[in-house]
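Inputs:
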Amino acid sequence: MGNDIFVWIEQFDGQVASPSWEALGLARQLSEALGGQVCACLFGAHVSGLAQEAIAYGADKVFVAEDATLADFRVDPYTALMAQLVQEHQPAVVLIGATFRGRDLGPALAVDLDTGCVADCTALALEEGKLVATRPIYAGKLLSTCTASGKAPAIFTTRPRAFIKREPDAGRSGEVVTMAAVLAEDAIPYKVTGFHETEGGVNLAEAAIIVSGGRGVGGPEGFEPVRALAQVLNAAVGSSRAAVDAGWIPYEHQVGQTGKTVNPDLYIACGISGAIQHQAGMRTSKVIVAINKDPEAPIFQLAHYGVVGDLFKVVPALTAALKEALG
Amino acid sequence: MHIVVCTKQTPDSAAKLSVDEAGNVSWGDSPIIINPWDEYAVEEALLLKDRIGGGKATVISMGPEAALEALKHAIAMGCDAGIRIWEDGFAGSDTQGTSHVLAKAIEKMGDVGLVLFGKSAIDSQTGQVAMQVARRLGFSPLTNVIKIVEIDPAAQTITVERLLEEGRQVVTAPLPAVVGTTKGINEPRYPSFMGIRKATRAEYPLWTGGEAGVDAAKVGAANASVKWERIFAPPAREGAAEIISADSAEETARILVDKLLAEKVI
Ligand SMILES: Cc1cc2nc3c(=O)[nH]c(=O)nc-3n(C[C@H](O)[C@H](O)[C@H](O)COP(=O)(O)OP(=O)(O)OC[C@H]3O[C@@H](n4cnc5c(N)ncnc54)[C@H](O)[C@@H]3O)c2cc1C
Ligand SMILES: Nc1ncnc2c1ncn2[C@@H]1O[C@H](COP(=O)(O)O)[C@@H](O)[C@H]1O
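Outputs:
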């Protein structure tokens, strides 16, 4: 095996997913210890324009495959391409952002290459010549460290926002290598026939700030002050399961064990008691603020800052104070 | 159509966990339950049987005797048969090993049109087994499915809506397929009294590796491609929240904003 680091660059509609840049940032860091080049693997229908962006974010080399069959991420053609690349070039390791698509690609690639894939890592470091990953288990109540090996380089999927993306440097230069798709359309029975964009575009996994509402908001209209607060902070709106189950807000917003795992800089919980299953999805947030009228609510055990009071008074006051402070 | 549901057992999601120096995890007297995500897979199998008007739902689990808890729950909900696949040599398998065993068992059944999975196991939290089983069997890999729009056993096709970061993708693919379910696809039913009685009386055949056609060189801790080096408790957060309280909501809000500015998170 060589000592290059491969990073899969995920794009949707010509927009690169932030976790790919984060993985590229991690790759740069690892390459200092491993030596070798950081290679970005960029597939899609119209993506060659993104190669320079990948170089700016830290790639030394970009493998570009442009083909109509690659327009949407599909497991078969993407895994076939990635497997071929890895087999030809034998890098030391493959990094993939742990998004929905990345969490399809990683394990599929592991089967094709007969190697190990460590899911959803929050840290990755070289220890005594071995890559050791840290990952949360049991809903973040415990941590584990894992290593991987096999007939091919190990694969790690990296949790969104767990690694730092570099400031893009437009002056960096790198090599672009084009390649052809491996599978033809008639060898891919999986057909994407439609797409419904999420209303209001919630991407909780990538959000730097999240304002969440729980049963305490009392009804669908109770999310209005929560949304107003989110708006001044340019934040995403989250919720507890109780609010989703009551039909006040769609499932896409749910944070927790059976919802999204999030990792923002700031998490503001409004009218959420902080059940263990809710904590499972947000406990790693950097700063947690709880607004709840019950001083005994378990969320106050986890939060960094708490306000004991009626969210219908506190949240609008906070919105107003922020408007003033942030201009 | 023969529908298979893959499930495993886990400690209750509310269990208080502890871990010793050697990395052994214990959950006190908290019960072992069916992996909560798998209830959606079981429910969907039952709904599909109604929708198609017949067929058979078999629930399978690779695991030691505790796996019976998961099988029993699925039978109590309404599945037709439960099979456990195990031998001591399977212990310590990673998702590659587990998916090999499950794929072999499904292959042995021969007539499977659909395999349903939960989103991930709440203990190891890997979420890889469904995709790896699909890849091994060459079944259509449909993960994060929030709606089965249409299933046509005659035409051998399935159309689903999948949850992605940006929205919902509609996909049509051939059967047989693997469907990884997610919350929102249905509301899992509670087992009925009759169902629980049935589950208690049911027989749960045990398949060993040999019976399922498992390659012993692909399973067990020694052959795992992912090794768990250490399991430990995360550093505890010190102290409870700093409670901010002033005479008015406005003043409280202003103090909180200052704190957040100082934390550099806004
Ligand atoms: C297997 C399993 C998986 C689960 N997964 C999830 C999950 O993914 N996500 C999740 O969130 N939950 C999950 N749960 C549910 C979880 O156990 C709790 O039931 C849920 O989180 C409670 O939501 P809540 O905090 O909004 O409601 P409650 O617990 O009812 O809390 C409401 C809070 O609002 C406060 N309040 C009320 N009115 C006001 C007001 N005017 N101003 C301020 N505060 C007010 C109350 O004091 C209370 O603390 C799961 C449960 C199970 C069993
Ligand atoms: N040992 C097992 N036996 C049967 N099904 C399993 C087993 N492990 C995982 N699964 C299935 O695969 C899903 C994802 O598990 P995991 O990849 O381990 O997070 C679970 O929700 C189950 O449906």
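Remarks. Residues B 6-8, 35, 37-38, 41, 61-63, 95, 98, 102, 117-118, 120-121, 124, 126-130 surround adenosine monophosphate (ligand 2) (CB under 6 Å). Chain A touches chain B through 95 residues (CB under 8 Å).
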